[in-house]
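ok so I'm stuck.
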Amino acid sequence: MGRRFVGTGRKKAAKVIKEKIFSLFTLLALFTLFTFSEASDSEKKRLFPNPTRVFRGFVWVIQKGGMTVADELHRQEPFEEFTRPAQIEDKRSMRKKAQLFEEEINKDFLRDSGRLFWNQIPNDIGDMAIWQGYYTAFRAFEYDATKSEQTLSFLGKALDGIDLLTAGYGKAYLVRGVDPAAGDALKTHTYFHRGDRYDRVEDASGSSMAGVVFGLNAAYRFGDKKTRDKAGRLAARLARGFKQSGYRLRNANGSTTRWGDFRPNRWILDPAKLLTVVALFNLAHQADGDPMFLKEKKKFTQSKTMRKIAAKGEAHFLWYGKEYHQHLAFMSFYVLMSTEQDSKLRGLWESGFKKLLRKYRKEGNSFFTFAGASFFERNSNDIKTAIQTLQEFSFPKKRKAANNLRDLSIAKAGRRSLQPLPVWRRPNTDIVWQRDPYELAGPPGNRYTGLDFLIAYWMGRRLGFINKNQ
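replied:
not stuck anymore, here's the structure
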């Protein structure tokens, strides 16, 4: 009897509690309805946040959590510390290889009197913008190390090339590629358009923007006054075009390019794009001084979650897909560390940059290492492996297929090596720094430049890690 009585009492108590809760929610709903009907429009916005915005913030929190999980899973990668001895096929000095790679570019890979850079032959100029910016940065680093008037001339022409890419083509304020109308670019790209003086490829992307911003920043930091002024003007023009186009890259007819939506209210945020935008507005403000740029920048750093997603730079599942996203993040972090004046944001970018450096430390990636060493003290062994990786380049780059799958001298984890392969043994590729250093096999490819070697070599030279006789 006692048990039944206690059970019945509990049921009655639960019923009363439910009724009280229902009454409370009913009163709350009536109060909310009355308040909403009596409130002004401005009060409504303050008291009742946009539900879409609230839910989008919740999605961003989930995204950040997913990226954190992906980073933790990445720690389980099977790769070993970079401890293997050097395997140098081309015994010439780094200085000699730099000379040969540069002579090759000057002879075969420059167009329009040196204004336009090609990273490959044949070329449909579909990835030209990012590598034009990269090429500009290489010339800026070389000039800072040598103060050569010839290098300064090349740097000025490289900026002329960026001017052509960002001069405006219909409503496209940035295009993927430009070639003289009588030039030898392939006419096969989907977004290729003929012109009177220049042919163009539209459909600019996030990587197009990242490369151009990286190049403009390097020219602004390391050029002479004339070069700095020119780079600053181009950065400000690009930033204004970006704002006026609603934070989207446009084709000539005004349509958004396939990967050109940078708007800060997207449901899923692209960390590399966020970094690029903040870097662009920082550089434009530093060069131009217009406070509008800082006002626009705040839209891309408005929430704590948004800032933390941006600071991650990139994330991918496990250790697969080691390609270009981290490369874009490193370029943008480099610009941010050069330009950020807000102490809290600078601390956030510094933390994100260092985490990315730790994440890819085992790769011996010379570009990543020297980009980090431009701002932070680096472990001497990391510098050593970065130099070793450069020493393992061979001139010229090989076009043939690579197949190391059956090589018993290479320790493997499935279809990948346990330690980074020497560059000369890796599959043929455009820029080594944005590709998987553990990949064992790949098909033959186009003829590529040694721009990847040159940009890392001259970063190392200007920082004093590589002397001119090495």
